[in-house]
Description:
By secondary structure, this protein is α/β, with parallel strands linked by helices. The chain has 18 helices and 20 strands. The chain has helices spanning about 5-25, 25-40, 45-50, 60-65, 70-80, 115-135, 165-170, 175, 185, 190-205, 215-230, 235, 250-260, 375-385, 425-435, 440-445, 460-470, 485-490, and strands at about 95-100, 105-110, 145, 155, 160, 180, 210, 240-245, 265-275, 275-280, 290, 295-305, 325-330, 340-350, 355-360, 365, 370-375, 390-400, 410-420, 455. It has an eleven-stranded mixed β-sheet. Strands 2-1-5-4 form a four-stranded mixed β-sheet. The protein has a three-stranded mixed β-sheet with strand order 18-19-20. It starts with a helix and ends with a helix.
Amino acid sequence: MSVKKIAAKIFAKKIYTKTQKWANNPIEAQQKVFNDLILQAQNTQFGKDHDFNKIKSFSDFVKNVPIRDYEELKPYVDRTVEGEENILWKGKPLYFAKTSGTTSGAKYIPLTKESMPFHIEAARNAILHYIHETGNASLVDGKMIFLQGSPILEEKHGIKFGRLSGIVAHFVPNYLQKNRMPSWQTNCIEDWETKIDAIVGETIEEDMRVISGIPAWVQMYFEKLHQKGNKPIGELFKNFNLFIYGGVNYEPYRSKMENLIGRKVDSIELFPASEGFFAYQDSQKAKGMLLLLKAGIFYEFVKAEEIFNDQPKRYTIGEVELGVNYALIISSNAGLWAYNIGDTVQFTSLQPYRIIVSGRIKHFISAFGEHVIGKEVEATLQKALENTNIRISEFTVAPQINPKEGLPYHEWFIEFENEPEDFAVFAAAIDAEMRKQNMYYDDLIIGKVLQKAVITKVQKNAFQDYMKSIGKLGGQNKIPRLSNDRIIADKLI
Length: 493
């Protein structure tokens, strides 16, 4: 056994033991995080505005700090972006992670010197838990690849801006630098298709053992490897045995990925976001991901059906139940307070606390990590219809992950009252506006992960017939504007 394997196993056991201490004392761990957050933020503008110096308990916090989404927190964020100090958290953030917004373009999520280390540690610890449980430390003797955004960052008012994955690239531990691929130069390539080609060229002859990324992007990488190497991925990389993913549901991709690989490989699911690294799969045997209760984040949970109530009941970790759909609310050492991240979770275990991501609070499409929401598709269609004679009765949008030919795409199912004279022109208008509405969608089109939107005309009354078939015709029932699967789409076809 190599020295690196021995060291990895020792370190893995140490981290596992450390994790068990807080995992077995979850309420105490969260109370310590809560107390620390309130204490450190007392003299910030947010802390003063919300009387943090008077908060002695969670019930005080609930009274003083309402649940907010990004738009409601934006006045504080804007001041921080402009370089003001001590607004949401002490001092200035180290970074702003730029992500997709819902009503006002891009969002800027702060990352501080206190919060940043937890993003790195969580990803590391997920691998170490795998090593501890399986005993498989062979991965440390080969190469690892993390398909991620460009690490090139902008800077304004002494704060750097970029995509989270690009920021994280600056924090790869020294002991992994020799194993890590692709090269820094290749990682800086902005165009995704060019970047993937370069990564294929760099890695095809290497001993790749760990591959990580959003499934859609990894699938594209595998397809290009297969084209160049003319072999299953499992033969090109004989020691490849661990796939790490996050951001989207892997299940729609699993069969095609395993076909490309030629065999099954172990996988680890992660739950990272710009707002924090919330959970990772700590066991190959248990369902769900371990919720990170001692990582600078205090969690609250609101039943999903109550999230839009004026004063919904807010639960702490000791009050949650199995199988209930909760909106995830966080307060963190990045300066987010009672922040609704938009994701819903369900607990699969309470000893320890493990979760699955059950979806978004509203309807969405994120089959490729784009996080398209209803407001964006509605605004897109409205813009495309301007100054035309086109009229529609109803529409919905769904992802086509496995087309018969070509790249995946977003498929717009539209019932027209008055059809466009040229469907190609209309589809191009929709695609162009969608790219303005959602920068992740734009990235996927530019990177040739997706082809442009496809318009499918549905027959008259098709939506009515669908709603009738599920017993929801009339009344307050509405057709979802978009969905992350093809249940509605297949019915319409």
